Amino acid sequence: MPELPEVEVVRRGLAQWVVGREIADAEVLHPRAIRRHLPGADEFAARLKGRTVLSAERRGKYLWLPLSGAEEALLAHLGMSGQLLVVDPQTPPERHLRVRLRFEDGGPDLRFVDQRTFGHVMLTPLVHGVPEPIAHIAPDPFEESFDEAEFTRRLRARHTEIKRALLDQSLISGVGNIYADEALWIARLHWARPTETLTRPKIVELLAGVRTVMGAALLQGGTSFDALYVNVNGESGYFDRSLEVYGRRDLPCSRCGTPIRREAFMNRSSYSCPKCQRKPR
DNA sequence: AGTTCAACCTTCACGC
DNA sequence: TGCGTGAA
DNA sequence: GTTGAAC
């Protein structure tokens, strides 16, 4: 498993190419890619033109670029299949290209590509440095503002099941269904474990698991499950992905050899090792 | 109040 | 070969 | 992955 800070690779990748650059033109190729908070594609494009990108930030599945002028940012929500790509302007349009930003310097485009249209980009005001629509989203474990003691306190005050808590974006962000299952396996925790029974060291272990899984995924460009989902380099993360439990029903646990089980939970799949992750009584 | 569930979309793998 | 289904 | 409606 790669070591920290993998996130910085992604962030630097964005910052390196984008920061300080003036937007020449914004093109919306799919109306739903900018749904919400804006009248339409034309105004979206008009408001971006001539603005300069100041920096690049990330929170969970969100990336945002603060812009010159007003306290505003271009916010991208990647969803499950969305990607924010930095590519040579000569590159032919991607099959699922939704929004394309060209720059005055003639350098690489910033392209929002999203097969399933679950993600979107928008222009939004910043409040305390964070886009207004995601003000309720808690920091992810890679952010400097992520406070482990605070997280521990709030987690144990929840009185809920641990996986439910991990998927709660107001408590911790960046952890989806797959990452949750993987992190729980690493920490040898059953998804139904009551949060108030977790010891401080166990929570530390779990967070380490979350960072390991999330970091590996970020290295591959965020969401990359199917071979058709590609990373920032346009390569599939499919083959070098190393999932221990997710999607491995009946396959042996790499720690103890016990067949991995699949259970329905919260209207989705949950995978775990019956031996390593004992169900709480 | 807490929880489940369908909807939002496109594509692909699978079985018949 | 295609059509419906389930899953991402 | 997120939202909002329905139990």
From TrEMBL:
<dbReference type="InterPro" id="IPR020629">
    <property type="entry name" value="FPG_Glyclase"/>
</dbReference>
<protein>
    <recommendedName>
        <fullName>Formamidopyrimidine-DNA glycosylase</fullName>
        <ecNumber>3.2.2.23</ecNumber>
        <ecNumber>4.2.99.18</ecNumber>
    </recommendedName>
</protein>
<keyword id="KW-0326">Glycosidase</keyword>
<keyword id="KW-0234">DNA repair</keyword>
<keyword id="KW-0862">Zinc</keyword>
<feature type="binding site">
    <location>
        <position position="158"/>
    </location>
    <ligand>
        <name>DNA</name>
    </ligand>
</feature>
<keyword id="KW-0238">DNA-binding</keyword>
<keyword id="KW-0378">Hydrolase</keyword>
<feature type="domain" description="Formamidopyrimidine-DNA glycosylase catalytic">
    <location>
        <begin position="2"/>
        <end position="119"/>
    </location>
</feature>
<feature type="active site" description="Proton donor; for beta-elimination activity">
    <location>
        <position position="61"/>
    </location>
</feature>
<dbReference type="Pfam" id="PF06831">
    <property type="entry name" value="H2TH"/>
</dbReference>
<feature type="active site" description="Proton donor; for delta-elimination activity">
    <location>
        <position position="268"/>
    </location>
</feature>
<keyword id="KW-0227">DNA damage</keyword>
<dbReference type="InterPro" id="IPR000214">
    <property type="entry name" value="Znf_DNA_glyclase/AP_lyase"/>
</dbReference>
<comment type="similarity">
    <text>Belongs to the FPG family.</text>
</comment>
<dbReference type="InterPro" id="IPR012319">
    <property type="entry name" value="FPG_cat"/>
</dbReference>
<keyword id="KW-0479">Metal-binding</keyword>
<keyword id="KW-0863">Zinc-finger</keyword>
<keyword id="KW-0511">Multifunctional enzyme</keyword>
<dbReference type="GO" id="GO:0008534">
    <property type="term" value="F:oxidized purine nucleobase lesion DNA N-glycosylase activity"/>
</dbReference>
<dbReference type="InterPro" id="IPR035937">
    <property type="entry name" value="FPG_N"/>
</dbReference>
<dbReference type="Pfam" id="PF01149">
    <property type="entry name" value="Fapy_DNA_glyco"/>
</dbReference>
<dbReference type="Pfam" id="PF06827">
    <property type="entry name" value="zf-FPG_IleRS"/>
</dbReference>
<dbReference type="GO" id="GO:0140078">
    <property type="term" value="F:class I DNA-(apurinic or apyrimidinic site) endonuclease activity"/>
</dbReference>
<dbReference type="InterPro" id="IPR010979">
    <property type="entry name" value="Ribosomal_uS13-like_H2TH"/>
</dbReference>
<feature type="binding site">
    <location>
        <position position="96"/>
    </location>
    <ligand>
        <name>DNA</name>
    </ligand>
</feature>
<dbReference type="InterPro" id="IPR015886">
    <property type="entry name" value="H2TH_FPG"/>
</dbReference>
<dbReference type="InterPro" id="IPR010663">
    <property type="entry name" value="Znf_FPG/IleRS"/>
</dbReference>
<feature type="domain" description="FPG-type">
    <location>
        <begin position="244"/>
        <end position="278"/>
    </location>
</feature>
<keyword id="KW-0456">Lyase</keyword>
<feature type="active site" description="Proton donor">
    <location>
        <position position="3"/>
    </location>
</feature>
<feature type="active site" description="Schiff-base intermediate with DNA">
    <location>
        <position position="2"/>
    </location>
</feature>
<comment type="subunit">
    <text>Monomer.</text>
</comment>
<feature type="binding site">
    <location>
        <position position="116"/>
    </location>
    <ligand>
        <name>DNA</name>
    </ligand>
</feature>
<comment type="function">
    <text>Involved in base excision repair of DNA damaged by oxidation or by mutagenic agents. Acts as DNA glycosylase that recognizes and removes damaged bases. Has a preference for oxidized purines, such as 7,8-dihydro-8-oxoguanine (8-oxoG). Has AP (apurinic/apyrimidinic) lyase activity and introduces nicks in the DNA strand. Cleaves the DNA backbone by beta-delta elimination to generate a single-strand break at the site of the removed base with both 3'- and 5'-phosphates.</text>
</comment>
